[in-house]
Design brief:
The protein has 3 helices and 3 strands. With 80 residues, the protein is an alpha+beta fold. The protein is globular.
Length: 80
């Protein structure tokens, strides 16, 4: 069973990084019992290939992704 936030996460990324190649994998089952997962928040693996990242450091790219998903964290997303 996939986490209910998966499609909302994917949709937010697709609208924030138009034209990007985006892969989202629900990794929540591997973290069952983890303190962050107990409240229902999910664990996800995300890969994004976007022109928006050109010339930006890894830290800047991470900040861009976290900004795009801010409304889902920490309630629906515990970890990326």
């Amino acid at each position: 069973m996939t986490h209910p936030a998966l499609e909302r996460l994917r949709s937010r990324l697709e609208s924030s990084f138009a034209g990007a190649r985006i892969s989202v994998q629900d990794d929540s089952a591997r973290h069952a019992g983890h303190p962050g997962a107990r409240g229902g928040a999910g664990h996800f693996l995300v890969r994004i290939e976007s022109q928006a990242f050109a010339g930006r450091s890894r830290l800047q790219r991470h900040r861009m992704v976290y900004e795009a998903l801010a409304e889902l964290m920490p309630g629906e997303i515990h970890a990326l």
